């Protein structure tokens, strides 16, 4: 088993406060976070939803690459954009409304139908997708 760790320190109330999220395991960087960056314009800061999108797009690429390789059609290139939608929920509060994955790939020897089937399988079996089963995940997959 492998563990990864990030830490966020928050100062102040929700509307005017802010925080910093550090990537503790890799020690790559620290991200500034705030409620306005989450619910309005990013303004040079990130949000939990953007971090989820980063995790989902990278996990999905890895899963799709593995499945294409197992099918005998290893990819040359995969580019996945994950869009996480966040907004008010009925009855108050906020929620993740859904995640849209858009993948474009160069896969020599793969037919469009086979690629779409494998891409859908990757969406279902990607560990991050599995962790996010409480939300709707859509997929738009095309060969380049």
Provide structural commentary:
- Residues 1-11 have a biased composition (Polar residues).
- Pfam families: OsmC.
- InterPro entries: KH_dom-like_a/b, OsmC/Ohr_fam, OsmC/Ohrsf, OsmC_Ohr_Peroxiredoxin, Peroxiredoxin_OsmC.
- Residues 1-25 are annotated as: Disordered.
- The longest helix is centred in the middle third of the chain and has 23 residues, at 48-70.
- By secondary structure, the protein is of the alpha+beta class.
- A hairpin with a 6-residue loop joins strand 1 (6-11) and strand 2 (18-23).
- Helix 2 crosses helix 3 (112-125).
- It starts with 5 loop residues before the first strand and ends with a strand.
- The protein folds into two domains: 6-39, no CATH class; 48-143, GMP Synthetase, Chain A, domain 3 (2-Layer Sandwich).
- The strands form two sheets. Strands 1-2-3 form a three-stranded antiparallel β-sheet.
- Helices cover 33% and strands 34% of the residues.
- The model has no long low-confidence stretch (mean pLDDT 96).
- CATH architectural type of the largest domain: 2-Layer Sandwich
Q: List how many beta strands DSSP finds.
A: 6
- Give the count of helical stretches: 4
Indicate the mean pLDDT: 96
Order of helices and strands: EEEHHEEHHE
Q: Structural class of the secondary elements? A: alpha+beta
Strand content: 25-35%
Domain tally: 2
- Record the strand order, biggest sheet: 1-2-3
Stretches where pLDDT is under 50 for at least 5 consecutive residues are none
Instruction: Tell me roughly what share of residues is in helical segments.
Output: 25-40%
Largest sheet, strands/sense/barrel = 3 strands, antiparallel
Principal-axis shape equals: elongated
CATH fold annotation of the largest domain: GMP Synthetase, Chain A, domain 3
The N- to C-terminal Cα distance equals 36 Å
Rounded to the nearest angstrom, the radius of gyration is 17 Å
Using the coordinates above, name the CATH class of the largest domain.
Answer: Alpha Beta
- The CATH superfamily of the largest domain is known as K homology (KH) domain
Region (Disordered): 1-25
Biased composition (Polar residues): 1-11
Pfam family, one: OsmC
InterPro entries: KH_dom-like_a/b (IPR015946), OsmC/Ohr_fam (IPR003718), OsmC/Ohrsf (IPR036102), OsmC_Ohr_Peroxiredoxin (IPR052707), Peroxiredoxin_OsmC (IPR019904)
């Amino acid at each position: 088993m492998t563990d990864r760790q990030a830490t966020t320190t928050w100062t102040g109330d929700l509307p005017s406060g802010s925080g910093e999220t550090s990537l503790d395991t890799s020690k790559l960087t620290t991200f500034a976070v705030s409620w306005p960056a989450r619910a309005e314009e990013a303004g040079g800061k990130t949000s939990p939803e953007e971090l989820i999108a980063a995790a989902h797009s990278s996990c999905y690429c890895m899963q799709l690459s593995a499945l294409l390789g197992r099918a005998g059609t290893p990819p040359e290139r995969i580019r996945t954009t994950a869009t996480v939608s966040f907004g008010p929920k009925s009855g108050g509060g906020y929620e993740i409304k859904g995640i849209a994955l858009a993948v474009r790939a160069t896969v020599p020897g793969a037919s469009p139908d086979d690629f779409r089937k494998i891409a859908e399988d990757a969406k279902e079996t990607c560990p991050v997708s599995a962790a996010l089963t409480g939300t709707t995940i859509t997929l738009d997959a095309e060969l380049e």
